[in-house]
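Dear support,

I submitted the protein below through the web form. The confirmation email said the job was done, but the results page showed an empty box. After a refresh the structure appeared. I'm attaching both so you can tell me whether what I see now is the final result or a partial one.
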Amino acid sequence: MESSQELYQRLLAADGFATQDLSERLDRVGRLIDISGRLRRQEGIDRALVVCEELGKQMLNPEQRGTLHYFNANAWANRWVITGSNHEAWEQPYLEHEILELRLALRDASALPVDRRCQILTNLGNALSKSGRFLDAIHSRDKSLELSPMF
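What the results page shows now:
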């Protein structure tokens, strides 16, 4: 079984995304974002954001597009944590990017599995709470619970 560090190195390599299969590239970028966040590696997040931008130029179906926006939001959230951004500053560009990407993911929510929709709504609620928009945050989390009461 591949260690987290080995997976990180493999995905970060020049050929880490060398596949024509869009679903596989999307899966790989999601794994790179997750592993980079766990390892607190900015370089991995930067690479993932570039790959997300490239994938966004492709003809994606609604499920792939919604997933891409969800992964992109996770990358911005990880960047916000890793860089140690001043969480008390008035302007929060990384948080703004995260919220925007989660809202874009919701445009294609009907094509996504219920668990993914719940993840998006919960993450949006958390991001809105961090930005001080508490009523919107509660509304987003409530929508998640309407979809799946046990989520």
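Response: this is the final, complete result; the empty box was a page-load delay. The mean pLDDT is 94.
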